[in-house]
Structure to design on (254 residues):
């Protein structure tokens, strides 16, 4: 019997995941590694824990230390990835920050910092990666958006602006690059147990209100994102362009 082609197989693919030291980025790195991809973990913190977990999957691993608060390192990230592993097939723009304050008091620094990491760097790293991918005639870019790509939220104006902008940029890049063999899509996580949501979970009223609205009846575990990331990184999604896929326990359909 001939071997059946697995459309989710990432064997031989090279994936860059930003913010991979913790939370959703770490879970995505693990899932892509399990599917066969070599992992380049990019971030400003040590990647030791992620390295140990990814190595257990048998995947190749390389860490790049970079502060994505500016776009200065983006070209070097692509160049180092290509020089270490010989290519770059998958980019996951996961690194992100959130700042909470009432809109009436919100400060410029909190605006610029969040827009910088969540939107500006995601765009320019995508551009640097696409310059390589276009030469190969294929590539996969996965942006980590948010429910606030669809909804307003409260007390997070720059975060909502950044994630709504990221959904728009996902659609724009899909329009420009689909014809060049690059799939640009996004995942919109619901409420996940990570550092990002620590303040919400620590507030008993907000925690209860959020849980009451999630049809699945629980907060998301970062591992819940992995399958969608593998799908969007694999040939299984070759005809999917510009989608923003909610992985939210049903929050948006409530
Ligand atoms: P997290 O644990 O706070 O992870 C954020 C990641 O981004 C960390 O690895 C962080 O590195 C990295 N990062 C932030 N600023 C950076 C910078 N200047 N340079 C390099 N790396 C930087 O939160 P998370 O929930 O896993 O967040 C991952 C993504 O999911 C974010 O884009 C977030 O907006 C999105 N998201 C999360 C939720 C949720 O419910 N948790 C919902 C929707 C969307 P450090 O550890 O060094 O800070």
């Amino acid at each position: 019997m001939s071997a059946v082609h697995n459309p989710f197989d990432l064997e031989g693919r090279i994936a860059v995941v930003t913010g991979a030291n913790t939370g959703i980025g770490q879970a995505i790195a693990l899932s892509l590694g399990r599917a066969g991809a070599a992992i380049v973990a990019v971030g400003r913190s040590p990647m030791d824990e992620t390295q140990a977990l990814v190595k257990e999957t048998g995947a190749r691993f390389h860490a790049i230390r970079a502060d994505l608060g500016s776009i200065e390192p983006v070209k070097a990230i692509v160049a180092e990835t290509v020089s270490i592993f010989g290519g770059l097939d998958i980019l996951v723009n996961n690194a992100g920050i959130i700042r909470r304050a009432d809109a009436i008091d919100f400060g410029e620094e909190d605006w610029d910092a969040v827009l910088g990491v969540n939107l500006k760097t995601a765009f320019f790293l995508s551009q640097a990666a696409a310059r390589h991918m276009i030469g190969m005639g294929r590539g996969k870019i996965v942006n980590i958006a948010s429910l606030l790509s669809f909804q307003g939220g409260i007390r997070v104006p720059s975060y909502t602006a950044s994630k709504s902008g990221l959904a728009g940029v996902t659609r724009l890049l899909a329009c420009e690059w689909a014809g060049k063999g690059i799939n640009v899509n996004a995942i919109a996580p619901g409420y996940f147990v990570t550092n990002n949501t620590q303040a919400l979970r620590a507030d008993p009223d907000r925690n209860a209100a959020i849980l009451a609205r999630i049809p699945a009846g629980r907060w998301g575990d970062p591992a819940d994102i992995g399958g969608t990331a593998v799908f969007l990184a694999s040939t299984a999604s070759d005809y999917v362009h510009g989608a923003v896929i909610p992985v939210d326990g049903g929050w948006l359909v409530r």
